[in-house]
Write a structure and sequence with these properties.
With 652 residues, the protein is α/β, with parallel strands linked by helices. The protein is built from 24 helices and 7 strands. The chain has a 7-stranded mixed β-sheet with strand order 1-4-5-3-2-6-7. The longest helix is centred in the middle third of the chain and has 48 residues, at 324-371.
Length: 652
Amino acid sequence: MAPMALTPAALRRSGSFRRWMLHGLADRTGLFQGPHAAVVENTHSWWRVMCLTGVDYFSTLGYQPAIAAVAAGLLSPFATLVLVALTLFGALPVYRRVARESFRGSGSIAMLERLLPWWAGKLFVLVLLGFAATDFMITITLSAADATAHAIENPFAPAWFQGHQVAITLVLVALLGGVFLRGFKEAIGIAVVLVAVYLALNLVVILVSMGQIFTHPIAVTDWWSAVNTQHGNPLMIIGIALIVFPKLALGLSGFETGVAVMPQIKGDPGDTDANPAGRIRGAHRLLTNAAIIMSAFLISSSLVTTILIPQAAFQSGGPANGRALAYLAHEYLGPIFGTVYDISTICILWFAGASAMAGLLNLVPRYLPKYGMAPNWARAVRPLVLVFTAIAFLITVVFQANVDAQAGAYATGVLVLITSASVAVTLSARAKKQRKRTIGFAIIALVFVYTTFQNIRERPDGIRIAALFIIAILVISVVSRIQRALQLRATSVVLDAAALEFLTADAASGHIRIIANEPDDGSKSEYKNKNSDERRFSHIPQRSKTIFLEVHPSDSSDFEEDLIVRGIDKHGYRVLEVNSGTIPNTIAAVLLQIRDETSIVPTIYFEWSSGNPISNMFKFLVTGVGDIAPVTREILRESERDSKRRPAVHVS
């Protein structure tokens, strides 16, 4: 039973445009989701999957050195060393733990969801989704903006490119949306080629630049003299580097993506769904190697760009702004090689946007519709692509396709996700009574909390943008939850053998009469009195058999549930028991399942609830109870339009 989804047959009956738009509701094979597809048919070696992380992680080399130079100036290499230390000894161990405990690609958000149940957990997840949306959306717009910067500054670019940064960026974003509307395949093959070529070209640029430094050592002397002149003794240099390194947080952008692509990793033959040891080991190799490679490039690129490029060239409008390594490629390897480098950079930056779009297309359907906090069409790919593309357009126009202006928002999203991951692994280690690991992860969490706070304090535009996403998600969630309150929420209903035996026996007489009972002390007198009262006030024939139906409350914040109905004999009375967070929706789903299993339309008997109807309504929305009888009847009316096939509701 899956009342929440449109079946392929239902889609075939709808119009052609509607079928095309909602194709993702029927097809969850991963055709459109690209790198982060939830359903994976073909897995790959960890190093190939690492390239999926790389299109997001490694592509930041296109703009990270320039942003670091703007943020830290001549101290960029020292601040980058701090960032690398935090990468290798902070983010890496945190995400290795996340990979071990959240190996289905759900990442740290799923860990926190498990650790924080009920509404507190749901609201926390919604807030994190706001920051994740900030991260992914700014990845799309910032990457496209930097790709535009590389195109405009290329010496062979048409003259009319100048002054049209926003228009060109919008075209790139539109092309990205078009790819996902059409369908997105062979992501790994493309990623491997792009990453291999891009890293090889960057290695050439850095080695040639290192050669220039060794050939002209005066450049190092001048740089060091300027550092000492501006910042004094080494202790002051270290202190300033520690203070400014949060501005370089973009260099940590690939870790959440690294665990998101875990389902793509090929495991061992002996892997099980509960313990995919081979996949986890492959994810550890992916994360470790990606961190080491990126750390080496971060340090070397920061060093050569800071020493060889004048500080003025990094400023807004300067030739190295947002493209420091490209500047060196053109400067020391000529326009032909520089153009090849630009093309490679544009491609990987554009594909980084594709990876971010794919992440959004798996993140939103994974949580919001399941929570009842998004319309059902949010499960489909193409409507979401249009929504995300429109948001990317708006962000691009607001920020005028400026890389520096978007860096703060990007860093905020990245840092909040990593901070949440460090908190999640700290709580996990604490729950497992691993004292040393708890202390270690707590220290890492505090460092990331400090880093996040500093980034927000110095660049508050990031938290403002994230706040807009969070507010939008919360408003949409509340409205959607209210609109979908009267939907059937059961993704499946299973009647056990005893329950089927009770129902089959009554179906033979042509009637199935169900008495709704609110569980109390479970005594014999409870069922005796309830049965007697319902027979008296609802005029149930004395010789007619009855079955009690009890819904035991669980987490009312859950929207979709798999229901298991158990048949139990209590003091000689037959009882159907089911656990659920929403009582009226569950009763309606069980009644419809009884009808489908037995071909008999059941009748259910309630007693009126007391209390103010308005307060009962809010109680239903929050706790899943309230005035159960009329809500159950309304849910049945909405779900089954044919009154002859609709279970009857009697209230006395």
